[in-house]
Structure to design on (1520 residues):
């Protein structure tokens, strides 16, 4: 029991590496499949769909595992641009689970919805994602995804509503706190205090070590305007996982905000931009750079003054 | 009598009994299936159902004054019900009849219930004692009905034995022998009927019907009886004290007559029968006037309303409620006079004096039973045209006498008549008549001669005055504005059939009323708004302010031109509005009597003022009226005026909410005291904290006993005395944690130690004492613990602590921090002053004949329209008004789930909330940012700013992954994270003035270190950064300007010096120029240490070139700067050398005695008074020929371009 519990906890708090590194429980164990699912999903979270696929038993009929496989294929195909096949698989699965003759528990069905919605959201199909999850769901993970989607389309009000609704039926779960914290990240209510204390609390949690939490708190601190503190969080996180893209990205922002000197910040950025050309921040910045050139072109340059030296 | 105006119909099982409620629009219907329904016929809703009878219910009655209902059924029972909704129930059941109960009736004053039954008896029950007090026997067959006389102690009954009987029950009243008489009634079997006979006697037996009689009733005032029988006849009987006889019969029904009634007001009889007709008869002539036929429904029962012109008939499949004639009086308003028709007399009513006189009789115009339908008044000729719907539509044109004469003139004397359904004056000597069948509109002159005949362009049912030479034509689907002279349609608006048109007093607007819609349009129909009403619209009139007041069946409402409407008051009965004057509604009631209703126009005046932004008026209303209620508050809140709403609210909870919302701490405080709940105090504390009002925060914390927060607040505000009080309180509370806290805040080491000792943390206490140098105390603790120094030598020793609470620099206990601007509104200010600016009541003298004021209103309105013709677009507004509710629904529907529309990006908010270029950069709206920079500082070359732009944008956004595999959330770094409201969100200040100034200092260091190239780079960078810095106050702005100037001077100086060095290197012969440059360098505004360097370098150069006089001048300036002795000595030397040899070997362009600026392009002086152009950003000077070129100093701006400068965006 404890194993699954911890796996779940580590999963939600982003300690994917530690899940991936842990061995699976005995195959006869009742938790085997659940832990396996989380492990596969952790691979996916680490953007390693190949390992996830390897892990999955072949020819499984379990809806949840099938969905994990489909999502893995989706992620694997993301680079190539042909994602439709995997999306279709997920669509079919989402329809299938409405029927009765599907192998899998209610949790598996909920998982299918969550994973399908995840893929839809990644593909930018917000409406489809929300539809798949349904607004009346009583699955906390689904709520988390819904909330995240609302937040991503700048509707924290709806996110809050969905969260408030889930409080009526959900236990005070770690995931529930995470959802609240995520909402706080966007709304910035009470100076991000909710989010900040959530991460501080979880960092203090002795049962798990997740540098992701440090990164998240570092980002929260950036938002709170505590740049120096954020720097120390991020550096600590980087010490544990030097390759973590997210932490690096956050570190870039902290550097820009004065954690590092200008040349260092610039250097950090150019390094980051060249190493992770697909990171949304880099993509966004490249777009902005083009935009800048476009806008700047609207202003014709006057002739240069013929100065003494010229 | 033209139509039976059906008001309401219901479908149900066969209706056997009907009864009107005397005052409310309620109708009870008893059904053949055993149910009794209570309908609200005005709203058309079923209000209640009473279902306890078994089998058909034939008898039903409503008490004339109390909320009681009596029913009698085929289950032999009579039931009495309480019909008040809150305690509706069967009060009691009267048992006694031995067969079907046919009718029941309440007595108008005694507590008696009368019932007729198939058991051949009529019984009277005492509803108080709930006992039968009389049994009238004599009929030899079913008794089909029994009715009390409306005044006398008589009963009339009808029976299948073909007789109608009149009973005298006066004995019952006098003797009232056995009200509650024991035994006799209850225990009397059928055999003991005789017991009661002494109290009631048959007075008359009316014989004449050849079949069973179904119904009989007394005339309300005359000694007449009417009866309806299966012999298809209705008979009228007259009676005297001693006898009764048949007067006449009305024949015409060709099947059993179920019921016949006297009309309560007119000399009419209404009957219905199984031949599926309802018929109306003339009582005097006994002739049939009108027949209404139904296809399939046999009529079983009729009921008349006790007071109103309303009837109900029950048939096989339900019931109908109907009127026999139009109640709407024909009227027309001219200025302050109302011309109207009552009882077929044209009358004149003066609104001001209330004088009401008859002018003209129109009794002979059309059918005597039908009132005229419309009246059109011609003030020029003092003539009226009336129309009437009888005889297929007639009109009559008559002159009104100048004043009332003794004998009123009858219109038939000189009236000019004709056929037509609609007739109105269209000019002083012309009127138009519509003939509906031929669809011809004839224009006639006053002698009734046709001067023009027009074919109606659309199917026209009614015509109205349409303004000069125009008509408004009402067709089934539209309303048309038609020009008579040009004979063409000017405009057309789609609309349900328009029934009435009312022009505003200034003839600029017209309200077109249909059954359920009102269209308000201007005089050429180019703009209009539509209001929909679910309840039938009856009439309307214009307020002098241009507000349309209208009445529905049960409300008087208002409607603003843009479509906003609301209820003014409720009505018991419909009225017909004629004129609105100030707070008075003039109207005609259903019997065409003038009435006035006083109402409170505040609400719509207020809304009107709000619409027109007329704050004075609003304020006046706020201060003088008692305008209250949730609706207006919600309205204000919705329109974004919480602070105004605050002034209306008395409910403390709402007041509190509003006060918090608009940041009015005083009110919030006051209300929080009244409410006195912790949540309130907490919210107050939060808001006060936001506004920096720590005194309120303190009070709120005290109320909630938030000791921790209080202590911290005191620490933050530096009130040490209060902190020590907190210590005492903590002592008293016996809370060691709190004591410790406070001791820590107060820097009270002794207390801290004491706390630690008290709670048994001796080691901590010891260490605290030790590290604070209190060795005695430490020793004491040690002793108390029974230890010696030796026992603890393994405990490491610490340095004496230097940590202290920070010293109080500014005691802010009594200071309030710069508080958040609460946006003091016009209202707050004015209400605080206790008076209006200007002080006087605004001229709102609606209808009080104050012409000038009205003109002002009208003018204001016109101006308003001219100002923004587009926004005033009625159509849009009208639609908005109409669809708003629907949108709201959408909102709630949308709620959650798919289809959620994306909200505004935070970056959009940033851009919206700020006029600073840097904020737009952070928001990523580079285009705006560039335009701002261009406008403010004349920047044209943005390429150089690109790294800055991108760096700022980069710094303002961060990404975090919160859920596995989902794309990360993009988060936006805000300037002050505590500011949550979206209208205050702004991006983080990436560049601060402080940081840039420290960068500037770095530049200074480079100058001192003679790294001039580096220095120039730094100064350029500083100047670029300064373009994108966040400023928040005037002081900062001043500092900013100072920084810009300093950086510019240094950059200029450094550039000159670099140029000089280049020159020395590359053109060693051009000594003159290099000397000039050296001299100009010293003219830059540098700080003394740097100026010293410039001067020393100049001295060296000039000395070398043997320009000793100049060198001496520089040395003098150097001395003024008080350099250190060594340099001073050197300077002295130079001065002496200059004195000895006051000559200059090389002439240079340098006049140090005339102030000059240095052209930053050519490095030549621009002496005071000579023309110069400037850089729009740094204000660097240039020779005029450089105007329009890129500035060489920074390469950013266009020299001489105009710029608005720094925006005051804080």
């Amino acid at each position: 029991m404890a194993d699954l519990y911890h796996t779940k906890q580590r999963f939600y708090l982003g300690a994917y590496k530690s899940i991936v590194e842990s061995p699976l429980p005995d195959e006869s164990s009742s938790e085997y499949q659940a832990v396996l699912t989380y492990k596969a999903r952790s691979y996916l979270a680490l953007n390693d769909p190949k390992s996830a696929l390897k892990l999955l038993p072949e020819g499984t009929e379990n809806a949840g595992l099938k969905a994990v496989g489909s999502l893995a294929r989706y992620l694997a195909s993301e680079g190539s641009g042909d994602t439709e096949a995997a999306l279709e698989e997920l669509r079919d699965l989402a329809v299938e689970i409405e029927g009765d003759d599907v192998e899998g528990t209610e949790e598996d069905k909920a998982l299918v919805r969550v994973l399908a919605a995840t893929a839809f959201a990644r593909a930018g199909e917000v409406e489809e994602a929300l539809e798949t999850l349904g607004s009346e769901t009583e699955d906390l993970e689904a709520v988390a995804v819904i909330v995240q989607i609302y937040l991503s389309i700048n509707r924290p009000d709806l996110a809050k509503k969905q969260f408030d609704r889930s409080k009526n039926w959900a236990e005070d779960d770690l995931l529930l706190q995470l959802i609240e914290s995520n909402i706080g990240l966007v709304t910035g209510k009470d100076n991000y205090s909710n989010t900040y204390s959530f991460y501080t609390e979880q960092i203090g949690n002795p049962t798990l070590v997740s540098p992701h939490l440090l990164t998240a708190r570092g980002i929260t601190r950036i938002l709170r305007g505590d740049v120096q503190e954020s720097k120390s969080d991020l550096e600590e996180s980087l010490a544990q996982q030097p390759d973590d893209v997210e932490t690096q990205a956050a570190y870039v922002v902290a550097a820009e905000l004065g954690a590092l000197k200008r040349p260092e910040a610039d250097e950090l950025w150019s390094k980051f931009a060249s190493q992770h050309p697909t990171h949304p921040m880099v993509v966004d910045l490249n777009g902005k750079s083009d935009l800048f050139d476009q806008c700047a072109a609207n202003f014709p340059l006057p002739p240069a003054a013929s100065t003494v030296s010229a | 009598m033209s139509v039976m105006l059906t008001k309401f119909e219901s479908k149900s099982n066969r209706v056997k009994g009907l009864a009107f409620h005397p005052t409310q629009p309620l109708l009870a219907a008893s059904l053949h299936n055993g149910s009794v329904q209570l309908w609200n016929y005005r709203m058309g809703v079923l209000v209640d159902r009473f279902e306890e009878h078994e089998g058909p219910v034939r008898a039903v009655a409503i008490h004339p004054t109390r909320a009681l209902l009596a029913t009698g059924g085929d289950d032999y029972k009579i039931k009495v019900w309480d019909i008040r909704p809150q305690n509706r129930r069967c009060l009691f059941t009267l048992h006694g009849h031995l067969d079907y109960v046919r009718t029941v009736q309440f007595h108008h004053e005694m507590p008696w219930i009368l019932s007729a039954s198939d058991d051949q008896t009529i019984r009277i029950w005492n509803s108080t004692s709930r006992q039968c007090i009389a049994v009238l026997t004599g009929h030899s067959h079913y008794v089909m009905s029994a009715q009390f006389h409306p005044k006398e102690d008589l009963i009339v009954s009808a029976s299948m034995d073909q007789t109608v009987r009149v009973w005298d029950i006066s004995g019952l009243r006098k003797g009232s022998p056995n009200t509650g008489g024991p035994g006799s009634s209850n225990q009397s079997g059928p055999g003991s009927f005789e017991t009661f006979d002494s109290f009631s006697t048959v007075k008359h037996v009316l014989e004449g019907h050849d079949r069973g009689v179904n119904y009989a009733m007394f005339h309300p005032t005359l000694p007449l009886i009417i009866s309806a029988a299966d012999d298809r006849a209705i008979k009228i009987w007259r009676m005297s004290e001693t006898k009764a006889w048949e007067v006449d019969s009305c024949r015409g029904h060709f099947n059993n007559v179920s019921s016949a009634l006297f009309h309560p007001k007119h000399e009419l009889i209404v009957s219905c029968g199984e031949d599926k007709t309802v018929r109306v008869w003339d009582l005097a002539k006994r002739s049939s006037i009108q027949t209404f036929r139904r296809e399939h429904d046999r009529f079983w029962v009729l009921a008349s309303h006790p007071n109103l012109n309303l009837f109900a008939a029950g048939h096989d499949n339900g019931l109908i409620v109907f009127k026999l004639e139009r109640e709407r009086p024909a009227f027309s308003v001219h200025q302050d006079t109302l011309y109207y028709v009552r009882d077929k007399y044209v009358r004149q009513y003066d609104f001001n004096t209330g004088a009401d006189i008859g002018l003209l009789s129109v009794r002979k115009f059309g059918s005597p039973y039908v009132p005229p339908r419309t009246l059109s008044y011609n003030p020029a000729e003092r003539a009226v045209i009336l129309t009437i719907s009888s005889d297929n539509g007639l009109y009559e044109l008559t002159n009104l006498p100048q004043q009332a004469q003794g004998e009123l003139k009858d219109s038939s004397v000189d009236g000019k008549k004709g056929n037509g359904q609609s007739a109105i004056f269209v000019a002083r000597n012309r009127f138009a008549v519509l003939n509906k069948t031929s669809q011809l509109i004839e224009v006639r002159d006053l002698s009734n001669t046709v001067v023009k005949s027009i074919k109606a362009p659309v199917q026209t049912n009614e015509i109205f005055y349409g303004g000069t030479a125009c008509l408004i034509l009402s067709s089934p689907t539209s309303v048309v504005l038609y020009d008579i002279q040009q004979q063409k349609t000017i405009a057309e608006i789609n609309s349900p059939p328009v029934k009435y048109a009312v022009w505003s007093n200034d003839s600029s607007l017209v309200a077109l009323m249909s059954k359920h819609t009102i269209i308000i349009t201007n005089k050429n129909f180019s703009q209009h708004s539509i209001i929909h009403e679910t309840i039938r619209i009856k009439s309307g009139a214009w307020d002098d302010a241009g507000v349309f007041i209208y009445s529905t069946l049960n409300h008087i409402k208002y409607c603003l031109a843009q479509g906003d409407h609301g209820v003014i008051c409720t009505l018991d009965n419909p009225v017909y509005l004629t004129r609105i004057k100030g707070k008075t509604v003039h109207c005609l009631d259903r019997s065409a009597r003038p009435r006035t209703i006083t109402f409170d126009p505040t609400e719509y005046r207020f809304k009107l003022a709000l619409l027109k932004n007329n704050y004075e008026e609003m304020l006046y209303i706020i201060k003088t009226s008692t305008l209250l209620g949730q609706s207006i508050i919600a309205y204000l809140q919705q329109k974004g005026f919480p602070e105004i709403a605050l002034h209306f609210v008395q409910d403390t909870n709402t007041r509190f909410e509003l006060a918090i919302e608009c940041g009015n701490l005083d009110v919030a405080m006051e209300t929080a005291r009244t409410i006195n709940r912790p949540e309130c105090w907490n919210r107050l504390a939060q808001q006060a904290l936001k506004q920096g009002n720590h005194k309120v925060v303190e009070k709120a914390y005290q109320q909630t006993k938030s000791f921790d927060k209080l202590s911290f607040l005191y620490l933050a505000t530096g009130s040490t005395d209060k902190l020590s009080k907190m210590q005492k309180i903590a002592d008293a509370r016996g809370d060691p944690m709190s004591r410790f806290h406070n001791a820590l805040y107060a820097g009270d080491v002794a207390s801290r130690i004491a706390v630690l000792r008290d709670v048994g943390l001796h080691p901590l206490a010891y260490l605290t004492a030790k590290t604070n140098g209190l060795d005695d105390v430490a020793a004491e603790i040690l002793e108390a613990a029974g230890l010696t120094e030796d026992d603890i030598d393994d405990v490491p020793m610490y340095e004496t602590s230097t940590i202290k609470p920070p010293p109080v620099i500014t005691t802010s206990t009594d200071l309030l921090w710069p508080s958040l601007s609460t946006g003091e509104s016009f209202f707050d200010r004015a209400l605080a002053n206790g008076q209006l600016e200007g002080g006087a009541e605004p001229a709102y003298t609606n209808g009080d004949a104050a012409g000038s004021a009205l003109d002002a209103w009208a003018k204001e309105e016109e101006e308003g329209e001219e100002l923004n013709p587009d926004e005033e677009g009625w159509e849009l507004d009208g639609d908005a008004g109409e669809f708003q509710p629907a949108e709201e629904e959408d909102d709630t529907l949308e709620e959650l789930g798919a289809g959620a529309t994306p909200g505004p990006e935070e970056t959009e908010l940033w851009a919206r909330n700020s006029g600073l270029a840097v904020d737009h950069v952070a928001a990523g709206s580079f285009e705006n940012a560039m335009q701002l920079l261009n406008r403010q500082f004349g920047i044209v070359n943005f390429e150089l700013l690109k790294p800055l732009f991108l760096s700022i944008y980069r710094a303002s956004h961060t990404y975090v992954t919160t859920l596995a595999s989902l794309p990360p959330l993009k988060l936006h770094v805000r300037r002050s994270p505590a500011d949550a409201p979206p209208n205050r969100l702004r991006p983080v200040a990436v560049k601060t003035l402080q940081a840039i100034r420290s960068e500037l200092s770095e530049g200074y260091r480079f100058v001192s270190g003679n790294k001039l190239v580096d220095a120039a780079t730094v100064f350029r960078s500083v100047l670029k950064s300064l373009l994108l810095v966040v400023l928040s106050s005037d002081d900062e702005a001043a500092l900013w300007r100072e920084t810009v100037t300093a950086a510019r001077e240094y950059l200029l100086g450094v550039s000159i010096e670099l140029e000089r060095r280049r020159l020395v290197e590359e053109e060693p012969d051009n000594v003159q120029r290099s000397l000039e440059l050296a001299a100009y360098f010293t003219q830059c505004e540098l700080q003394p240490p740097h100026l010293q360097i410039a001067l020393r370098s100049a001295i060296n150069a000039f000395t070398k070139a043997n320009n000793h006089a100049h060198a001496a001048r520089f040395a003098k300036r150097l001395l003024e700067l008080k350099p250190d002795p060594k340099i001073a000595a050197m300077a002295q030397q130079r001065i002496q050398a200059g004195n000895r040899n006051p000559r200059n070997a090389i002439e240079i362009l340098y006049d140090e005695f005339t102030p000059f600026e240095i052209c930053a392009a050519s490095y030549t002086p621009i002496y005071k008074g000579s023309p110069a152009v400037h850089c729009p950003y740094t204000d660097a000077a240039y020779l005029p020929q450089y105007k329009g070129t890129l500035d060489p100093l920074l390469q950013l701006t266009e020299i001489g371009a105009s710029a608005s400068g720094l925006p005051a965006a804080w």
Remarks:
- Chain B touches chain A through 70 residues (CB under 8 Å).
- Chain B is about 30% helix and 30% strand.
- The radius of gyration of chain B is 49 Å.
- The longest helix of chain B spans residues 1034-1066.
